[in-house]
Design brief:
disordered N terminus; 0% strand; mainly alpha; 82% helix; single chain
Length: 462
């Protein structure tokens, strides 16, 4: 598991700063497993709530973009922590890396203190605005535990980023595995055993996130066998180190939040065209397809850590090679997975339409999943391109690209809803928009990489 040796160096750190191909594989495989577990957690919630009927399912779909926004803030700040920590490790500055980790933990407290009351105060009006007025009570039941536990959700993302920043991807996988086991156990107990309904699904998620944080803190503060050493002084506000985390973390948190906030608008058009059953189908089917994005997200997470460490160690010529390797492997894997899901779309749709009220939409969900499969390989370029920009401290460029892409999707959905008015028109709008978005992100990543290389006097012929 990469325990620290006498000189403080771990096997994880040696791999992180060594051969880029080995580093990408070493990091991306555990990250992929961790992300799969994270997505399975969401699908497990969906599976159990599906037994309650269409309205409870729709309540999760309506609240989910806000919940995902909070997770996105935590994940974005975690990526900022990962990038900052990896750069310090590349510079061989262990104490500085520990301070950045401490500032990241402090950041979770600061953000949560601001965000929690805002979420609670705006909960009911926002649910009505998002189209959940008819099932307001169910939405409030699901949202309340998640909003109260904002700190836990954000800290979970930051702690995961800290662990990845020091190259300990297997440990990030272990904390996600613990979270999944706890969630799988608690879901049926709370939803059905204690009769809590959708609120039970939310509390199961909160408890699961809390358990993963406790395990990470045990490693850092009790067992103390991680490369990063976090002391009390590291938890005191330090503007320079906080700034280094926020330089990447703030744009990335904003980017992930923008994506989820725009999902609210997309849901609105789906409700307008297909009602609450339609938005439940869309959200559930999209999550199934989004599972295919795990390799892209995993390789992207590896690119952030590996390229940031290369940046810190001034091994600039390795960055392009690492990025190209990541892109090639990602597109290859996602092309295969997209074909497999296209063939198995009927089985995937059946898993979430077993309740009698959903049976009539099974065929439409199967078709929707197949349409979405078309965009998967090109959409992967969004994750790898964004990750390269983060490692080069150009996360603001990734944010701008994400904003443009999502505005385009909203416009396409609006046109499809008003001019055509069929669910199928929305599915094709999303597919076309994401393909264009992937190509835009690839172009921006290559443009900034070329600019960076010219600033360092590096020849393009590597």
């Amino acid at each position: 598991m990469g325990m620290a040796e006498a000189d403080g160096t771990t096997e994880d750190v040696r791999i992180l700063t060594g051969d880029y191909r080995r580093a990408i594989r070493h990091l991306s495989i555990p990250i992929a497993v961790a992300l799969a577990i994270q997505h399975i957690n969401i699908l497990v919630d969906t599976f159990w709530v599906a037994g309650l009927g269409a309205d409870p399912m729709a309540s999760i779909s309506i609240v989910y973009p806000v919940f995902a926004t909070v997770m996105g803030i935590g994940s974005g700040l975690g990526i900022g922590a990962s990038s900052a920590i990896a750069r310090s490790i590349g510079h061989n500055r262990r104490k500085e890396a520990g301070t950045k980790a401490g500032q990241s933990i402090l950041l979770s407290v600061m953000v949560s203190v601001i965000l929690t009351p805002i979420l609670l105060v705006t909960m009911e009006p926002s649910i009505v605005l998002f189209g959940g007025g008819e099932i307001l009570d169910l939405c409030v039941e699901y949202a309340t535990p998640l909003y109260i536990a904002t700190f836990v959700i954000i800290l979970n993302g930051i702690v995961t980023g800290m662990i990845r920043g020091e190259g300990a991807a297997k440990r990030s996988m272990y904390i996600q595995l613990l979270s999944a086991v706890v969630n799988i156990i608690m879901d049926p107990i709370l939803i059905y055993g204690l009769g809590m309904g959708v609120a039970g699904a939310a509390w199961a998620t909160v408890i699961a996130f809390g358990s993963s944080i406790m395990l990470a803190f045990y490693w850092y503060f009790v067992k103390k066998d991680m490369y990063l050493k976090i002391g009390r002084s590291d938890l005191k506000f330090s503007p320079p180190e906080m700034k280094s985390v926020l330089k990447v973390g703030l744009p990335e948190a904003t980017e992930l939040s923008v994506m989820n906030i725009f999902n609210v608008f997309l849901n609105f058009f789906v409700i307008a065209v297909a009602g609450t059953v339609g938005v439940a189908m869309y959200s559930t089917g999209w999550r199934a397809v989004y599972l295919l994005m795990i390799p892209a997200q995993a390789v992207g997470g590896a690119i952030v850590s590996v390229c940031s460490a290369q940046y810190g160690a001034e091994q600039y010529t390795k960055i392009r090679k690492t990025y190209y390797y990541g892109v090639r492997k990602t597109v290859e894997m996602l092309s295969v997975l997209a074909v497999v899901l296209f063939i198995a779309a009927g089985l995937a749709a059946s898993a979430f339409t077993y309740e009698q009220g959903f049976a009539p939409i099974r065929g439409e969900m199967t078709h929707m999943i197949r349409v979405f499969c078309i965009m998967v390989p090109v959409m992967s370029l969004i994750f790898t391109g964004s990750s390269l920009l983060q490692s080069l401290e150009n996360a603001n460029i990734a944010l701008a690209s994400s904003f443009i892409r999502n505005v385009m999707l909203v416009v396409l959905f609006a046109l499809a809803a008003h001019l055509i008015g069929t669910p199928d028109s929305l599915w094709w709008s999303l597919t076309g928009g994401e393909i264009v978005g992937g190509l835009i992100m690839l172009s921006l990543a290559l443009w900034k990489l070329g600019s960076f290389e010219r600033s360092k006097g590096i020849s393009r012929k590597l």
